[in-house]
Amino acid sequence: MIMDVEKQNRTVLVVDDEPSVLFTYKLLVEREGYKAIAVETSKKAMDVLHSAQRLDLLLCDLSLEEKHNGFEVIEFALSRFKQLPCVLLSGYATNHIVERAKGLNVPVLHKPIDIEEFLKTVTTILGADDGDKAQTKEH
Q1: CA 60, CA 69: separation in Å to the nearest integer?
Q2: For residue 25, is pLDDT > 80?
Q3: Any idea of the CA torsion for 118, 120, 121, 123, to the nearest 10 degrees?
Q4: CATH, residue 78
Q5: Structural domain contains residue 68
Q6: What pLDDT, on a 0 to 100 scale, did the predictor assign at position 66?
Q7: Which of 97, 108, 52, 100 minimizes the C-alpha distance to 77?
Q8: Which domain holds residue 108?
Q9: Is 135 among the domain residues?
């Protein structure tokens, strides 16, 4: 079991273009004791990913602003943090989308998100190690 202090040292980047949904995800992550960084656009997400020294998990919506999508953010994240666990959140997960996510080793949570499934996914991923797997920026 992860100690509360260890949880507080874990950082989750949450990306969703709908403010109320983003707020809910952020609140759920923080309620579990983790630090959450919540952003509404792919540009803001990429800015965080560019400047962050450490991240432990990326939760990203598929449909973002304008013509941007979660795959852009996830692929950028994986270029910066090679082993960063990512989860794609989608209300429109077609077989093609699920297969593309699978190819990146990214699980898909279908919207509307079941809170228990969401929390289990977050805690399973962040609890799967003892903190040694946190992703630091590649140089």
Answers
A1: 9
A2: yes
A3: 120
A4: 3.40.50.2300
A5: yes
A6: 80
A7: 52
A8: 4-127
A9: no
Record the tokens describing residue 5, joined without a space: 């202090």
Question: Model confidence over 90-102: pLDDT tens digits?
Answer: 998 899 999 999 9
CA distance 52 to 98: 28
pTM passes above 0.85: yes
Single-letter amino acid code for the residue at 133: K
Q: What sign results for the dihedral spanned by CA atoms 31, 32, 33, 34?
A: negative
* Cα 41 from chain centroid (whole Å): 13
**Total number of domains constituting the chain:** 1
Count Cα neighbours of 117 within 13 Å in the Cβ-side half-sphere. 10
* Radius of gyration for the alpha carbons in the chain, expressed in angstroms and rounded: 14
